[in-house]
Amino acid sequence: MATSAGAKLTPVPAEPGPVAARAKAKGGALRPDFSTLCGIAIALTGIIGGLILEKGSLQDLTQGTAAMIVFGGTLGAVLVTTPMAVAMRAFRGVGQIFFERSSDTAETIERLIQLATKARKQGIVSLETDATEIEEPFLRKSLSLAVDGTDLQELRKMMDLDIALAEHAAEEEAKVWEAAGGYAPTIGIIGAVMGLIQVMKHLEDIKEVGHGIAVAFVATVYGVGAANILFLPSATKLRTRMQQATLRKDMVLEGITGIVEGLNPTLIRLKLDAYLQGAPRKKANTAKPEAVKKDASV
User: How far is CA 107 from CA 12, 101, 102, 140, in A?
Assistant: First the structure.
């Protein structure tokens, strides 16, 4: 069955697009990701500090032409590899690398338990007003479907599809930065070779040759450094964000499933508490909770 006979259909609010979704808080305030900021700062401090200890100068690494070759060439290669829509979405989402949204898993569990308690006392239709007031899109959509009387298996199917599509979009964005990390070192080598070509035109001055060779290899430093300090770690960070978001959505879906099944809120809490320990995602067996419910009612 799609809906119960007497239930009033509640329009399911559409999920906001990628830009709107990022602009609106979805479970917490936006705050700097100190692991990213500190990691980049430590890496740069170590590299520049080592250069200074070797009696080098920061000016040795400031070459505008090298930066133009490496970053311009990398951007071009990424655009050739990636569809424009995906690339633009990845560039707009660069803030996800340096900022994160605070999320309290325990608070979300408490909210789900409150909803379960109200549904058990007053019926699941009583959650209609609560569903419209929820800001988090995934929880709002799943609870709205539950209030509308959507069949449990169909509800899980729809929300699992929602999770899968979100994972696919996040993976596409991560691959953009991963591709940049693969191209940047090679483009850096191209920049170094171009610099050496220019050096070879002036072999009559040995001092200038030595200086020119040193300058030529700055492009390689830019390419390798950008790939291993920024691009590749950013791809990994985005995948980590995706895994955290998926785990949170799984927890919400398990809670909504318990509410639809009419489980005792205590049993729902016992199930959801596993997510506080970072339990891996697993497919729920709807038959098993039914058996638990029967045992609890005895």
Answer: 24, 14, 11, 16
pLDDT of residue 28: 59
% helix / strand / coil in the chain, to the nearest 5? 75, 0, 20
Q: Give the integer Cα–Cα distance in Å for 51 and 29.
A: 39
Question: Distances from the Cα of 1 to the Cαs of 5, 149, 157, in angstroms?
Answer: 9, 9, 14
Q: Find out whether 188 and 221 touch, Cβ atoms under 8 Å.
A: yes
| Within-domain flag for 55 | no
**In sequence order, what DSSP letters do the residues of 134-198 get, joined into one string?**
--SHHHHHHHHHHHTT--HHHHHHHHHHHHHHHHHHHHHHHHHHHHHHHHHHHHHHHHHHHHHHH
Residues 6+ apart with CB under 8 A from 69: 187, 188, 190, 191, 194, 219
Average pLDDT, integer, range 60-72: 88
Which range of residues forms the domain containing residue 110?
Answer: 30-36+60-297
pLDDT-based confidence at 199, cuts 50/70/90? confident
The number of distinct structural domains making up the chain is 1
Q: What's the confidence (pLDDT) of residue 180?
A: 96
